[in-house]
Amino acid sequence: MAANAFPIFDLRRFEQAGDVERIQLAGSVDEICRETGFLAVANHGVAPAVIEGVWTCVQQFFDQSMEVKEKAAAPFPGYPYGYLGPQKEALAKSRGEDTPPDLKESFNGGPSTAPPGMTDREALDFCYAATIWPERPADFKAGWQAYYGAMEDLAARIMRVFAAALDLPETFFDSYIDAPISALRALNYPAQTVAPQPGQIRAGAHTDYGSLTILLPQPGSRGLEIMTPDGEWTPVPPVPDAFVINIGDLMARWTNDRWVSTLHRVVNPPEEEVAAGRRMSLAFFHQPNWHAEIEVLPACVASGASAKYPPVLSGPYLMSKFKATTT
Questions:
Q1: If we measure between CA atoms, which residue out of 308, 323, 263 comes closest to residue 37?
Q2: Whole-model pTM?
Q3: Chosen CATH of 3-322 out of 2.60.120.330, 1.10.230.10, 3.30.990.10, 1.10.575.10
Q4: What does the pLDDT look like over 203-231, one tens digit per residue?
């Protein structure tokens, strides 16, 4: 897929558009989400200093020795936040596919505080668990939280685009996402100095679980592929100064499968690029409030038909997905 063939949505243009153009732009998003659910968002308004800051601290963290990184490790399997070392996860298992562990390591963080009145023990122990911050680099936490806050804001703006694309009031989703249980994940795919096991790749084929994902690949990096409607794996090209957005399983469910949550994966670098083939990315997984009831939107159910899915609560639904991926 060439860069000029990958859909790029101008967020600033949408937000500044008049009513007629706004409807046209929203319609283009609806079309994309019906076909692949993947697009790039340009003119997003996230400050370059925030992006540069998080890239710097993340790279410095991953460049440290394993001994140092392990000091920020998750204390037990299934704990959501902190450092997760190499080959500790196999994303394809979320689809029931038995594969070798993925060739990656990650650092994961969630909301900084629980909303007032939150008493659900499962939510407090999982989504609102403490992030285990590394000792070094010293400015890691500040850089991370600045980026996390920017992603919360960007996700809320994109959800307003999604509402318009579904012919809903632009503020429709606001009450569902005013205390989101989102997570930010920094991913490092090291250069491959040892040949992978048969069937082992950097991130196995999977769909994301929530409402949407905001991905920031390392500039110029490759390896992300999506399954197109014709059943072919197609590379997602680097798009300078843009985020890659995709919808997740929950949004597909919310729209009664009008929108698709597309399979994607991260493949190994070509043999000639293996030695210098390190790749990093930042993935923000946006998830509605823990207690938000996700019920199929009436506008997405054809006349005389029934909804495909019963209502679910956002938090328990997320947990049921997450538990299937740890090795």
A1: 263
A2: 0.92
A3: 2.60.120.330
A4: 778 889 999 999 999 888 888 899 988 89
